[in-house]
Each structure stands twice: as structure tokens, then as C-alpha cells.
Specification:
Its cofactor is [3Fe-4S] cluster. The protein is an alpha+beta fold and about 100 residues long. It is about 15% helix and about 15% strand. It binds iron/sulfur cluster.
Length: about 100
């Protein structure tokens, strides 16, 4: 099979409709994560579900929140973590 690299110049479209949507426009939703250390029983499920967002203290296994406003590609993992937390110590607030 032969692949043809397309070298067609991309036509510049100068008739874009403008960007008058205002600076408040958001790309996707934000999710704010909060943890309740008092509830956390150190099960570590959240760390398994979202290792980039949660860690655990070495001494007692209590959760550490690494990123309270995770990037969009982490939202699913964070929701997973909240869902699997046996202590319901992870709260999510959609922004
Ligand atoms: S899953 Fe819940 S109980 Fe377990 S470490 Fe994470 S926050 Fe704590």
C-alpha cells in the first residue's frame, strides 16, 4: 500500500465569523475536587483510580490531593476515584 502525503496547501479562510463570544467562554467543564481527611480511611482506591490527582501520606495512608482542579482529561479518572472511595471522602463540584 502506498501512502500519498497530501501537500495541498490549506486555503486560508479569511471569512472567519469572528470571536465575539467573550472571554468567559469555557472549553469544557471544570471539576473541583475536595477531600475530607477525617472521612478518609486510607483505602487507597482513589490513588489507583487517579494517580495523577491523588496520593497517600506515607505515615498513615490518608489521601493527599495533588490537583484540586484537574485537567479535563483527568475528569473521568477523578469521577472514578470518587465513585470507588469507600469512605465517600472525595467530593466533586462541577464548575
Ligand atoms: S479512596 Fe477514599 S478512603 Fe481511600 S484513600 Fe482515597 S479518599 Fe481515602
Amino acid at each position: 500500500m502506498v501512502t500519498h502525503p497530501h501537500e495541498t496547501p490549506v486555503p486560508t479562510d479569511r471569512t472567519t465569523e469572528g470571536t465575539a463570544k467573550g472571554p468567559a467562554e469555557k472549553k469544557g467543564a471544570t471539576v473541583k475536587v475536595t477531600i475530607d481527611e477525617d472521612k478518609c480511611c486510607g483505602a487507597g482506591s482513589c490513588v489507583l483510580a487517579a494517580p495523577e490527582i491523588f496520593d497517600q501520606r506515607e505515615q498513615d495512608g490518608i489521601v493527599i490531593l495533588l490537583d484540586p482542579e484537574p485537567a479535563e482529561d483527568q475528569h473521568a479518572a477523578v469521577r472514578d476515584a470518587a465513585a470507588v472511595c469507600p469512605a465517600a471522602a472525595i467530593a466533586l463540584a462541577d464548575g
